[in-house]
Write a structure and sequence with these properties.
It contains 15 helices and 12 strands. With 502 residues, it is an alpha/beta fold. Strand 5, helix 8 and strand 6 form a beta-alpha-beta unit. Helix 2 packs antiparallel against helix 3, helix 3 crosses helix 4 and helix 4 packs antiparallel against helix 5.
């Protein structure tokens, strides 16, 4: 069935003239959030700069040493430094509503502004031969960066909590065909921390009744009309954002006209690039002849990045094994004393380029667990080739505890040292899973499986097969050392709050 026929069939099921009551657009949370961050930025920078001054010179006034006699003191420099720092934070748009709460990109901009400030100070000091005390800067700049990042992190936690409760969201009207609108809505309904909530749609070429709906995950998205109805739709749904997924239908002229139409209004415009699951670090704007193109770099699986990842894996696994050795010894004793059988369980998994290996785990089930799987197949709660039972009768008493906190996976640090696995990577698949792979799913085998990964911090056993595959492929396409470090930190948080582990 074609997309148009599928949509027509879906339309026929809906009640006629269904539209919510018009809303008044309220986006007061945005300026309030930005003003709050502006205040905490000023507090963080002021505290750091004067802490540097007082930590180096105490409470006495101290002049700056320069070739020419001057009354310019460190107090004046501190004030100038504060104003310059805050100006750079503003110039690099670290407080833009779409950046605030975004996480890595927001932190990157804050770090960039601080490094630029440090570079600017060095250049000015060199040109004017100023002898600025190194101890002053050594306290002020690092402390300021830490305070800025910490305050931004606190603001992000507060914003994410509000969004998960249904507040501080940006109502979005999507322009696109029904399938694209549905995909957009499903993606963002599953990630409320992004702050986008699809409230309506305008479908190019749509000539049907207003009020027909598109099913977008757990939401019904009303269609107001075609792209020419966008201003009416914005007013009706109380939207403050327009997202365009129909770039190929509108064309460059249509996009320009939409920009001109929205220009007099306080409306944000988002245009999807037509590709999904590609990290922003792989995208670069390439200006062409009156047309801006997006250049997407190829994923890298070898070279310097591979060496850096290997070094990180070996160092981290070695230090981790030394640190958790006492814990592993206690777990081994508990397993041995509580049930018969070996301490370790060697599970066959498929690794890099389809090569099988034995993945080590602490035994958390009874000895004959594999033989009993067939009789429990009817209780399987997972989709695809996965096998998961929330209350698996094969799990031992000690096994329940160590599985809940992922302690059964500690021996996999040995697999990392053997180079069967990485610290971060796709979920290690079983041979029977790999035999069902088709198409792009085989790309999971282009990198070593990981002890942790996106699958570990995004729901673990609660993930569906399709979502697990999507996350693994996203990692394979976009992995980097920075991403690995962030995922390790998120894994620690996921283990402390073990949702989806069973």
């Amino acid at each position: 069935m074609s997309a148009a026929a599928h949509f027509a069939a879906e339309e026929s099921k809906e009640p006629e003239h269904w539209l919510p009551e018009p809303k008044v657009r309220k986006a007061a949370w945005r300026p309030q959030l930005v003003n709050g961050i502006r205040i905490t930025d000023a507090m963080a920078v002021t505290v750091a700069v004067f802490a540097g001054q007082f930590g180096r010179f105490g409470f006495r006034t101290h002049p700056i040493v320069a070739p020419v006699d001057s009354e310019f003191t460190y107090t004046a420099l501190s004030i100038l430094l504060i104003l310059s720092w805050l100006s750079l934070l503003s110039m690099l748009r670290t407080r833009t509503p779409w950046i605030v709460g975004s996480g890595p990109e927001e932190y990157r901009r804050v770090i960039d502004s601080t490094l630029r400030l440090f570079g600017g100070i060095a250049i000015v000091a060199l040109v004017f031969q100023l002898n600025i005390a190194r101890g002053y800067l050594a306290i002020a700049l690092p402390l300021g960066l830490v305070l800025l990042l910490f305050s931004r992190w606190l603001w992000r936690q507060r914003l994410v909590a509000k969004r998960r409760a249904g507040a501080s969201l940006s109502p979005v009207v999507v322009i696109g065909n029904p399938d694209a609108v549905r995909e957009f809505a499903v993606r963002f309904s599953g990630s409320p921390s992004d702050g986008l909530q699809v409230v309506g749609a305008c479908v190019p070429g749509y000539a049907g009744r207003r009020g027909k709906v598109i099913h977008g995950g757990n939401r019904m998205i009303p269609i107001y009309g075609d792209e020419r109805s966008i201003l009416e739709a914005i007013e009706h749904f109380g939207a403050d954002t327009v997202a365009v997924t129909a770039t190929e239908q509108l064309g460059s002229r249509g996009i320009k006209e939409l920009i001109w139409t929205l220009e007099p209004y306080d409306i944000e415009l988002l245009v999807t690039p037509g590709v999904s699951d590609v990290a922003g670090s792989r995208m670069m704007l390439h200006p062409g002849n009156d047309v801006n193109l997006i250049h997407i770099s190829k994923p890298t699986y070898s070279g310097a990045q591979r060496v850096a990842k290997t070094t990180f894996d070996l160092l981290f696994a070695t230090m981790a094994l030394i640190a958790v050795a006492p814990v592993m010894l206690i777990i081994a004793l508990c397993i041995k004393l509580s049930s018969r059988g070996p301490v370790f369980y060697a599970a066959e998994r498929v690794g890099l380029n389809g090569k099988p290996f034995s993945m080590l785990k602490f035994r958390s089930m009874v000895v004959d667990a594999d033989a009993r799987r067939e009789e429990l197949e009817h209780q399987n709660e997972a989709g695809g080739p996965l096998f998961k039972i929330r209350e698996d009768p094969r799990v031992t008493g000690v096994g329940k505890i160590i599985r809940r906190y992922s302690l059964d996976e500690l021996p996999q640090f040995i697999n990392v040292l053997k180079r069967d696995m990485s610290i971060v990577g796709p979920r290690p698949p079983m041979a029977n899973e790999v035999s069902t792979y088709d198409g792009a799913v085989h790309r999971r085998l282009l990198v070593r499986p990981g002890l942790t990964g996106l699958w570990q911090v995004s729901g673990r056993s609660d993930l569906s097969w399709d979502e697990s595959v999507r996350l693994d492929l996203y990692y394979v396409e976009n992995w980097s050392l920075v991403t690995d470090c962030l995922l390790v930190l998120k894994t620690i948080r996921a283990v402390v709050r073990p949702n989806g582990a069973y």
